Amino acid sequence: MNRLKARLAAGETVKAAWAELASPDAAEIMVRHGWEVIVIDGEHGVGGLEDWVTVARAIEAAGGEVVLRVPEGSDALLKRVLDRGFRSIIVPMVNSARDAASIAGACRYPPLGRRGYAAPVVRGSGFGTVPGYGTGAAAEDLLLIVQCEHADAVADIAALAGTDGVDMVFIGPNDLAGSMGLLEQLEAPALHAAFAQVEAATRAAGKWLGTITGPGRSWADLTAKGYGLVVGPNDVSFLIAGARAAAAEASKG
Hints:
The structure is a single chain. This protein has one domain (3-251): Phosphoenolpyruvate-binding domains (TIM Barrel, Alpha-Beta Barrel). It is 45% helix and 16% strand. The chain has helices at residues 3-9, 24-32, 49-61, 75-83, 97-106, 133-141, 151-155, 157-161, 173-179, 189-204, 219-224, 235-251; strands spanning 14-19, 37-41, 65-69, 88-91, 143-148, 168-171, 208-212, 229-234. It has an 8-stranded parallel barrel with strand order 1-2-3-4-5-6-7-8, surrounded by 6 helices. Strand 1 (14-19), helix 2 (24-32) and strand 2 (37-41) form a beta-alpha-beta unit. Helix 2 packs parallel to helix 3 (49-61). The radius of gyration is 18 Å and the shape is globular. The mean pLDDT is 97. Belongs to the HpcH/HpaI aldolase family.
């Protein structure tokens, strides 16, 4: 059911863009112009859960795939997000294997976890139309991505990546750099050594890798390193770039 998960399993590097503005029109425009995977940014972007659902519907209607980055990993929020139909989820600031296990437990029904049950009446089950949703399909469909963006997570990365129920480790370079006293020093050797440590441990655990583009981390570089999910530009940056270019052109007239 989860086409994004199937693409990752096939060995593809999936390339995506961020949706920050909670605008269904902007997200649809991005899909229709080549960005078929959109990550809705619930951590730093605009809006709440029902805004994200509206954006997701626009993306899906245009033929795209949706990932949601939640603002935090509480049981209550994860339950609501899953019930409302999100099945590819990024959880930020997961700093230990214990945190990862708790998040995985919140996302899966018993006996695998402790997700609260309302399977027949939620959007996640197609309002009761997905066979076996509560007894296994939901867990199989879920793509659970945890963000490694702190030095504490790097220190515990082997156990964190090996956590049952975690499918991908997503490196957040900027926050990881900040936790190491290297904020905005994204080419620092110590930071790249941490990247390599996370990459090696995640591969050894048999899990997928994800991250964002940045200095020394181009689409080609990250594809060559075997990253499964790479997220680059966002709707705000597209608007800024277009506005600047148009203003510069107008100033010539």
